[in-house]
Amino acid sequence: MNGNVLASIKLMGMGMTAIFSVIIVIYAAVNLLHRFTDKKPDKKTQ
Amino acid sequence: MNFLFEGILSVTSKQVIMWVIGALLIYLAIVKDMEPALILPMGFGAILVNIPMSGVLNQTLEGIGPVKGIIDWLFEVGIEASEAMPLLLFIGIGAMIDFGPLLSNPRLLLFGAAAQFGIFATITAASLMGYSLADSASFGIIGAADGPTSILVSQILKSNYVGPIAVAAYSYMALVPMIQPFAIKLVTTKNERKIRMKYNPKSVSRMTRLLFPIIVTIIAGLVAPASVSLVGFLMFGNLIRECGVLRSLSETAQNSLANLITLLLGITISASMKADVFVSVDTIKIMVLGLLAFIFDTMGGVMFAKFLNLFLKEKINPMVGGAGISAFPMSARVIQKMGLEADPQNHLLMHAVGANVAGQIASVIAGGVIIGLVPTLW
After folding, report:
1. Which among B327, B329, B258 has a CA at the least distance from the CA of B290?
2. Coil, strand, or helix at residue B60?
3. I need a surface site. Which of B64, B103, B159, B316 has the fewest CB within 10 A?
4. In A1-46, which ranges are continuous DSSP H helix?
């Protein structure tokens, strides 16, 4: 197996890890945004 | 009178092949409606740059010296020097995207990440075929299913195959309705395709819509700094759309800017479709690798959904995972159609749209990650 193939496999590992890391952090951030910015039900109208 | 025949006598067989390819692209754009906004200018450009001594290319004229050609100049300024054209197009794309379906069900973001698998599988396949890591990565990025990202990454990595890569990227985006059903049926059963999913969208506040593009840019920038130009311009366009006070700019970005750049990008890319480079076995290999990238992407998203189903009570229709590519909205429509084929009451459109939009974010992040990682590995 030549060096390029090994490097491409390494790239796959590092690349997919990086993409999932960014996406998971964005996912967590969106959930936090929902928690802090969702409108609470108006008590007067309940 | 010899000067009248100089052009005709200079025609090479490879140039004639490029005229045929150009005519074929124009035919596919007009008759088959295959991404006509890009494919038609590329087809016409392929003819323009392959006319002997074409005035659209840089050349040295006898008695005058070097003369700039417009297409070479557009390529040098708009793509080679600054990658301005693909990046500016991202502002328009960002202004067109409604992240609402994704924000109301953010776990769909994960499918966008999983469906980038095809990029890396194709890079490995290209490396096995003996290509350098930079060229392999440039071929793999076709799997981003995103024309501007493919052009940008292959240009930054200094690939010699920008032309074939752009043709492959845009052609396969147009062929998503044929490629994805084939790939999905390979890895799903009919019962899996019948799985129904409830649609209970969360309401999305204006503040969430406003903060989302800023937060995504910061997160992506911190983890993968090379993705800032791609993600940043995409999200800048989206912020213009969502802010509510720049309606005129948002409309300009969505229509005038996107149309103008698209018009120029197609014909500019033809600078890399000169016969001596384009007519080669490598072009055929790139087309095959691009197809593999789309198939692996789809399979990656589907298999990830099946993996999640091992742990979930409410099962996900695995086809939704396949929508995690950037080809919007074709991929979402394909999943909706396949869901209805399996079960006439199975409406998956909104889930698929969310995954599809996630694919747009993940594909630009993938582009940035590749730009950042490849130079450290070669």
Report:
1. B327
2. strand
3. B64
4. 3-37
Residues of A engaging B, defined by a Cβ cutoff of 8 Å:
2, 4-5, 7-12, 14-16, 18-27, 29-31, 33-34, 37-39
Cross-chain residue pair A29–B131, CB shorter than 8 Å? no
Whole-complex ipTM = 0.86
* Ordered alpha helix ranges (H), B31-141: 36-48, 70-75, 84-96, 100-103, 109-114, 117-128, 133-140
Q: pTM of the prediction? A: 0.87
- Using a CB-CB cut-off of 8 Å, the residues of chain A touching B219 are 22, 25-26, 29
Q: Which residues of chain B have pLDDT under 50?
A: none
The runs of H, that is alpha helices, within B104-142 are 109-114, 117-128, 133-140
Q: Which of B377, B317, B319, B299 is nearest to B132 (CA)?
A: B377
Q: What angle, 0 to 180 degrees and rounded to 10, lies between the N-to-C axes of helices A3-37 and B117-128?
A: 170
Q: Give SS3 for B66.
A: strand
Distance from CA of A26 to the nearest CA of B (A): 6
